[in-house]
UniProtKB/TrEMBL annotation:
Source organism per UniProt: Rossellomorea oryzaecorticis
Entry protein name: SDR family oxidoreductase
One annotated GO molecular function: oxidoreductase activity
EC number: 1.-.-.-
PROSITE patterns hit by this protein: ADH_SHORT
Keyword terms: Oxidoreductase
Family membership noted in the UniProt record: Belongs to the short-chain dehydrogenases/reductases (SDR) family.
One Pfam match: adh_short
Coiled-coil parts of chain: none
Length: 223
């Protein structure tokens, strides 16, 4: 059975993708919190799936290098899902120190480093890379300048790889979804009514239904 590697796999969309994809892949969950990874892994096992996990902070180049070289991330990789993400919102004038770095380390440099570290395996196996980007990678948004900048960067990375590996068998899919009703918004009032947002399960179902046939997936945030 081929592996599907999912960053940010302990909660939200990453966990829901793991559940659905476990029907055809051995799931490998990556994330910063061991307890959340264990919980997600147990849910996948209860659903009959095969799953492993490893603690990884994608912001750390050293951790990415170390985990990429382990046996867990070697072998027959069918799918690599860049799902880990972080966002800070508000006027640029009020941006706090470290927010820009945190978003680019998580949303851009992490996916780039992990892709590069696994590239030999991805090329050999003619894998699919799935970038979870958000509609912030499609257009500018008020009070989201730094977040949007990071998502535009990931979009550019994905679109460039699509051209670089065109015809090679290695696929790159960019998924753009609006906000989801997840703990992502717990520490901000940027979204006033989360009830109108899609659930992670809804978004995961759409992505899993479309990623094998489309190179670009756009999902509206409203139900």
């Amino acid at each position: 059975m081929k592996k599907a590697i999912i960053t940010g796999g302990g909660t939200g969309l990453g966990k829901e993708l793991g559940k659905l994809l476990s029907k055809e892949y051995h799931i490998v969950l990556l994330g910063r919190t061991k307890e959340k990874l264990e919980e997600a892994a147990n849910e996948i096992k209860e659903a009959g799936g095969e799953v492993s996990y490893a603690v990884l902070d994608v912001r750390s180049p050293l951790e990415v290098e170390q985990v990429s070289s382990t046996e867990l991330l070697q072998g027959d990789i069918g799918l690599l899902v860049h799902n880990a993400g972080v966002g800070y919102f508000g006027p640029l004038s009020e941006a706090k120190g470290g927010e820009l770095e945190a978003m680019f380390e998580t949303n851009v440099l992490g996916p780039i480093r992990l892709t590069k570290g696994l590239l030999p395996q991805l090329e050999i196996n003619k894998s699919t890379i799935l970038n979870i980007i958000s509609t912030a990678g499609l257009r500018g948004k008020k009070n989201e300048s730094l977040y949007v900048a990071s998502k535009f960067a990931l979009r550019g990375f994905g679109e460039s790889l699509q051209k670089e590996y065109e015809g090679s068998g290695l696929r790159v899919v960019n998924a753009y979804m609006g906000g989801m009703n997840t703990p992502f918004w717990d520490e901000t009032d940027h979204i006033s009514d989360r009830s109108r947002l899609r659930s992670p399960q809804e978004v995961a179902e759409i992505i899993v239904d479309q990623y094998q046939s489309k190179d670009e997936i756009v999902i509206d945030s409203k139900k």
